């Protein structure tokens, strides 16, 4: 046991890139986690921070507020400008709006397929 909390906490206006792995970490409001990033146990990404794609945050590491980090293991790159921090929540809202446009393309999550299987079985349909 590490003594670290076994929960992952993601606050508001956070963008998490595809194929990222979040393990018992905390991401404060208004952050960007690049795709294929890995955040290990007990890591903390503070408000207004950006993690570049493919970054790995080791266990217990803290990414301070308003900074850009990248690499494996993640290292400080530079401070973010005020303008960049203002764009972070705008990106989260834009991605959320875009997802709503394509939501109808996906099947709803449910157990209806189980009822269909029962009906096919009772009618003797093998397909």
Automatic annotation (TrEMBL):
Coiled coil: none annotated. It comes from the Eukaryota. InterPro entries: Transf_Hexapept/Carb_Anhydrase, Trimer_LpxA-like_sf. This is Gamma carbonic anhydrase-like 2, mitochondrial. It comes from Sesamum angolense.
């Amino acid at each position: 046991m590490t003594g670290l909390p076994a929960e992952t906490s993601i606050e508001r206006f956070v963008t998490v890139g595809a194929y990222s792995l979040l393990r018992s970490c905390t991401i404060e409001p208004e952050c960007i986690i690049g795709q294929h990033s890995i955040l290990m146990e007990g890591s903390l990404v503070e408000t207004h921070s950006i993690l570049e794609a493919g970054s790995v945050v080791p266990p217990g590491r803290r990414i301070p507020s308003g900074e850009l980090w990248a690499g494996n293991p993640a290292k400080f790159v530079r401070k973010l400008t005020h303008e960049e921090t203002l764009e972070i929540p705008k990106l989260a809202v834009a991605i959320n709006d875009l997802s709503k446009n394509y939501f109808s393309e996906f099947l709803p999550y449910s157990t209806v397929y189980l009822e269909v299987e029962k009906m096919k079985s009772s009618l003797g349909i093998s397909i």
